[in-house]
Amino acid sequence: MRTAAFFDLDKTIIARSSALAFTTPFAKAGLLTKRSLLRGLLAQILFTLGGADHERTERLRLQLSKMVAGWSTEQVSEIVQETLHQFIEPIIYAEAADLIDEHHRNGRDVVIVSSSASEIVEPIGRMLGVEEIIATRLKSIDGHYTGEIEYYAYAETKATAIRELAEVKGYDLTQCFAYSDSATDIPMLETVGFPFVVNPDLSLRKFAVARGWGICAFRRTVPLRDRYQFEKPEIVTAATALGVTAIGLLAVAIVRKRKRHAS
Fold first, then answer.
1. What is the pLDDT of residue 37?
2. Taking residues 213-236, what's their average pLDDT?
């Protein structure tokens, strides 16, 4: 049977809300008013400090869905692609990236399961090299968002989507892993044999301890490009050495050829 590791995104893989991380580029593109931008920044502060309980998540969902009404789907995708490395890459938890690499080495698929919109989650998934994503889908008509949600990946719907994906992919959920920081993801964590809570608040920690779940502390945010800073010089040095060797051999061959002609 195949196995997988399921990761929540916001405050599990990255240190902030992925949707709110793009408020600055959206504002620069003229999609957000100053008032909307301030609301977004306030929501980000509250989300970061207070976690993501049901009430706060619902308020954020309604705010974001209304905010994007009328936006061009193509423009949003372009902005996300162009600014992904600037606004998302620096806030990825190094511990989460290490876990993703470890699960891949052990032959497991990695799946991001997020309440954020698929337009945001998909490029992040590609950047991290994950196999699948489960994300919220925003309704659009004629290339523009309506302000309605077609599918909301949240709470029990995340668990349902994981079970459905497991049926398709042949995952043995009793041997799968899941990671999340939020109590709203308890149904998702309960679907797998090896659930872990990430940076839990007191109530979620107590729940995890009572269930015998693993507890992770993610603290460091390191850009992906910096994770390989010790490998890149070696690659460059090797390439340079090969180049120097080739030039040296070519020079020797030219000298020998000239000597033969001279003689």
1. 60
2. 68
Check if 226 is active-site: no
pLDDT for res 217: 96
Tell me 192's DSSP state: S
Which residues pair with residue 52 across a beta bridge? Answer: none
Cα–Cα nearest to 114, from 13, 26, 213: 13
Contact (CB, 8 A) for 179 and 6: yes
**Burial (CB count <10 Å: 0-12, 13-18, 19+), residue 115:** buried
For 42-66, the three-class secondary structure string (H helix, E strand, C coil) is: HHHHHHHHHCCCHHHHHHHHHHHHH
Chain centroid, CA 263 distance in Å: 68
* Phi and psi torsions of 212, nearest 5°: 75, 25
Which strand ranges, in their side-by-side order, compose the sheet holding 132-141? 144-151, 132-141, 109-117, 4-7, 177-180, 194-198, 214-216
| CA 14 to chain CA centroid, nearest Å | 7
4-224 belongs to CATH 3.40.50.1000: yes
What is the residue type of 22?
Answer: F
254 — pLDDT class (breaks 50, 70, 90)? very low
Among 197, 153, 148, smallest CA distance to 177 is for 197
Residue-level pLDDT at 36: 66
Whether the Cβ atoms of residue 124 and residue 9 lie closer than 8 Å to each other: yes
CA 79 to chain centroid, in Å, comes to 17
Note if 98 is an active site residue: no
List of residues 6+ apart from 13 with CB closer than 8 A: 7, 92, 93, 96, 97, 100, 112, 124, 128
